[in-house]
Write a structure and sequence with these properties.
This protein is of the alpha/beta class and about 325 residues long. It is about 40% helix and about 15% strand. The protein is built from 13 helices and 12 strands. The two termini are about 35 Å apart.
């Protein structure tokens, strides 16, 4: 299990990862993106931004990097950095399949990604990922599983994934939407030849959306590594957009809203890796301060009051524009 490499890490940032969704393509749904990225969003410009982030993250002790087939050229950018740094041999690399990137490097595309959890899609995207990341890939995740996903019931797909696992690849899944807990529990029940198929789960959890917590605790107890994504609520918990309670607690800690929001997640006993989705080096450094934030019971109680009803949270997320 590749995440065993993180278990022995002593740096406080080892359990913070870097996801490249925000910099692998010119358009994404994070708030504040207009200021975060350069006016020049050419392939070369975002490749350089990605390189800067990877260098900064690695230097600060981050050891998990997360990409996906649908994150534009994120796999390509990560592969290029890994090839340029043969000394970097202690990182864990995860990618995802199940969505195709369809925006053709435009921010005004009608559709930025298309979902397909079928066996043919897996086989095609697995080959594409292998061409870029080769044996550096540690974890391959089904992207955004929902309770109705055919990936939960397709026995041929399960057999193909189990074959990849037998060859040394860890198999995981990510979730999205208001029924994350249901999807997690359904995935935990998937077995091949009597053995659980999945070794990791990646889900959205933050101070606004906590509904997956009980199921994530169950996954952790079942031996899965839990990866938390969207800890910043797609920018809704960053300084300019943060709720008043979060801004107040951040002021009390003398750190950023982002560090406080991520620190709440790091406190969860089931959270194995918490992803930063930083788009700038300054954001990354601020995010990594989460490892040293100390919150008291009163502050945690005030932040817990921010939770939203899951359907309302996901409805608002679905309305965020691609910038």
């Amino acid at each position: 299990m590749p995440f065993a490499r993180l278990a022995s890490a002593t740096t406080p940032t080892a359990h913070l990862g870097l996801g490249l969704a925000a910099v692998g393509r010119p358009g994404y749904i994070n708030l504040g993106r207009e200021e975060d990225l350069p006016a020049d969003r050419s392939v070369d410009a975002l490749r350089e931004r990605t390189r800067e982030l990877l260098e900064a993250a690695y230097a600060q002790g981050v050891r998990y990097f997360d990409v996906a087939r649908s994150y534009g050229r994120s796999e390509e950018f990560l592969a290029g950095w890994l090839n340029s740094r043969p000394d970097v041999d202690d990182v864990v690399i995860g990618s995802k399949w199940g969505y195709a990137y369809t925006a053709d490097w435009r921010t005004d595309a009608e559709a930025h990604e298309v979902k397909d959890h079928g066996l043919a899609m897996y086989e095609r995207q697995r080959a594409e990922t292998a061409e870029l990341l080769g044996d550096r890939l540690d974890l391959y995740q089904i992207h955004s599983v929902t309770p109705d996903s055919p990936a939960l019931t397709d026995k041929e797909l399960h057999a193909a994934l189990a074959e990849a696992a037998a060859q040394g690849l860890s198999i995981g899944f990510s979730t999205s939407g208001p029924a994350q807990a249901e999807a997690i529990r359904a995935a935990l029940a998937v077995t091949v030849d009597g053995e659980p198929l999945f070794r990791t789960v990646q889900s959205t959890y933050n101070v606004l959306e906590t509904s997956a917590a009980p199921a994530l605790a169950e996954a952790h107890d079942a031996g899965l590594t839990v990866i938390v994504k969207e800890g910043m609520g797609n920018g809704r918990l960053a300084g300019p957009h943060a709720p008043e309670a979060l801004r107040a607690v951040a002021a009390e800690t003398s750190l950023g809203c982002d560090a406080v929001a991520l620190a709440v997640i790091l406190r969860q006993p089931w959270a194995g890796v918490v992803l930063s989705g930083a788009a700038t080096a300054n954001q990354l450094v601020s995010n990594l301060h989460a490892a040293v934030v100390d919150l008291d019971d009163g502050q945690l109680s005030r932040l817990a009051a921010l939770v939203e009803e899951p359907r309302a949270y996901w409805e608002r997320r679905g309305q965020l524009p691609w910038h």
